[in-house]
Specification:
The chain is mostly helical and 93 residues long. The chain contains 4 helices and 3 strands; from the N terminus they run βααβαβα. 51% of the residues lie in helices and 12% in strands. The radius of gyration is 14 Å and the shape is globular.
Length: 93
């Protein structure tokens, strides 16, 4: 399962095990069944609470993958930046 984009509210809910929505419930079940869960976070800067929640879901088996494209391949447009992040997500699956 991939949650993209994943807000810090969704991350916190999954970390705490409180399923407030269908996406959060699906993530909870994915972790429970030991399936792959990739959470593509989008917010910065990160607070200590955000980092603690990321650590908590990582310990539960999720992968936290910030939507931060690389620039070392010298992209010439937005589609190449999007493709970079999408490729990283697909590599996790």
């Amino acid at each position: 399962m991939v949650i993209c984009p994943c807000s810090m509210g969704t991350l916190a809910s999954v970390a705490a095990g409180t399923s407030r929505s269908l996406v959060e419930r699906a993530a909870d079940v994915t972790l429970k069944e030991r399936r792959k869960l990739v959470m593509v976070t989008r917010e910065t800067p990160l607070s200590a609470i955000h980092l603690e929640n990321m650590l908590r879901v990582t310990h539960a088996g999720a992968v936290v993958l910030p939507a931060a494209p690389g620039f070392y391949h010298r992209p010439t447009g937005i589609p190449q930046l999007v493709d970079f992040v999408v490729a990283r997500v697909l590599d996790q699956l």
